[in-house]
Amino acid sequence: MVLVLMLQGCAVSEKTRELISPVSLPRPAAAHQAAYLGLFNAGENFRLHEIRARILVVEVFQSACSLCRHQVDTLRELYLLLEREALSGMVKIIGLGYGDDLLAVEEFARRSALPYPLFADPRGEYVGVDEIPVLFVLALSPEGARVLYEFHGPQPSAAGLIKLIRQALAD
Q1: Which residues pair with 151 in a beta bridge?
Q2: Closest CA to 109 of 18, 164, 30
Q3: Is there a contact between 12 and 127 (Cβ–Cβ < 8 Å)?
């Protein structure tokens, strides 16, 4: 499985790698979001590597960030491209609202009409980042999540991300 997270820049740090695998998120309340991630267990929380995918794209955003709001279009387009190219079974997308409470994340999701699950991270404890937005592309396996790509600030286009994802799937 591969996880993609949105970050500014293009370097992968050991600190980031250490922080990703142990992340435990609350199970989505909406049944369709839990099904999208392949989470069929009844547990309250899940770890990233439990998502049924080979690649996971993780967008770290803040609801008040103007660049984050602008980049939503790229991720929505990526989601549609994954569906169109029959990659949605192997690649999933999630968002982490860094410093945002649940109400802010729900409003951001509603306003942005995002088709993938978003999670609130009010204390910024899920992923250690110095700037927002960030995008991670992760490879998922039973052992955990390995960072393949990390982008900070403006991210590649949806077409550029699809190219990187295809390369990761081929490896």
Answers
A1: 135
A2: 30
A3: no
pLDDT digits (tens, 9 = 90+) for 106-150: 999 999 999 999 999 998 888 878 888 999 999 998 888 888 999
Number of H helices, E strands in the chain: 5, 8
pTM: 0.86
- Sorted by sequence, the CB contacts under 8 Å of residue 78 that are 6+ apart come out as 57, 93, 158, 161, 162
DSSP conformation letters of 69-102: HHHHHHHHHHHHHHHHTT-TTTEEEEEEEET--H
The one-letter code for the residue type at 28 is: P
Integer angstrom CA distances of residue 10 from 6, 47, 81, 98, 157: 10, 25, 22, 19, 14
Number of neighbouring beta carbons within 10 Å of residue 74 = 20
